[in-house]
Structure formats: structure tokens, C-alpha cells
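Memo subject: From amino acid sequence to C-alpha cells
Keywords: amino acid chain, backbone geometry, C-alpha cells, three-dimensional fold.
Body of memo: The sequence and its C-alpha cells, given next.
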Amino acid sequence: MRQRVCHVILKMTMICLQFATIHFGRPKAGTQSEMNSSVISKAIELRDPTLPGKALTEIDLLLRSTADLNEKVYLLFSKSSCLGILGNFDEARQQLTLALQQGPDDPEIRLTVEFNEGLLCQQQRNYSEALKRFSVVLSTHAKGLSRPERALALRATTPQ
């Protein structure tokens, strides 16, 4: 069971990280988020518990100053990831809820929220719940993940 969960998590992580980069991407050039994205990216990518504090400070400042929907959603997802690294799972889920409220009918936001909920379950070592959530993500969003433009973009970012 654990091996199956790890395989699904790895597959979903690759798909969703590629998707998030394609859809939400890096913040737009010239935006405040773009200038601070290296602090935020390092905190998330390195998963070092000493880094999210500074990233959370930056994220909170940027959230107060942006009106751009994609930038706000990117920041809320980043905040959720940082809180998850710190083990603040309830707060991390609250950020996902806020992100979903920004675009409740947006399938890309919903996909990312649902995937991140699975990641939080995995971080809490609740592997059976993580597997359930990832399975729902795959079955619910399979059609959208296989759209031609997404498939081409995923192929271009997948290591051979």
C-alpha cells in the first residue's frame, strides 16, 4: 500500500508541479512577487524549516499589495506550502480555502487546491487519505490534464 501511495504521490507531484508552473507560472515580470519569488521558491523547493519564516513575511506583504488574481492565488498556494513545511496544517488548509474562494469555478485552481490537500495528508503521514485524494484528483481532472496544449507543455517540461 505504501509503495502504491508513493508512486501515485510522485506521479501527481510531477504533473501538478509542471501544471502549476505552466498555468500560474512564475510571477509576471516586474511584479513585486517576481522580485521576491526566489525567497519564496527556495523556501518551498528546499523544504528547510528555517526558510519559510522569511518567505511568509514576504508573502503577507505581497498579498496586501496585489490586486492581480493569478498573483494572489500563487501567493496563497505558496503560503499554504510554507505553512505545511512548518507543520501548521490547519493554517495551510485555510490558505487553500482562500485560494479556492478567489476562483471557485476555475478548474485549475480547484485542481491545485485538491492536489495540495493530498500533499498535506501525505505530510501528516496519513497515506491512505492522501491516496484517496490523489485518486480523486486523477479521476476528476484526467480530461483537463490530457488536453493537447497541456500535454505538449508537460512533455516539454518532463525530463527524458
Observations:
- The mean pLDDT is 77.
- The two ends are 28 Å apart (CA to CA).
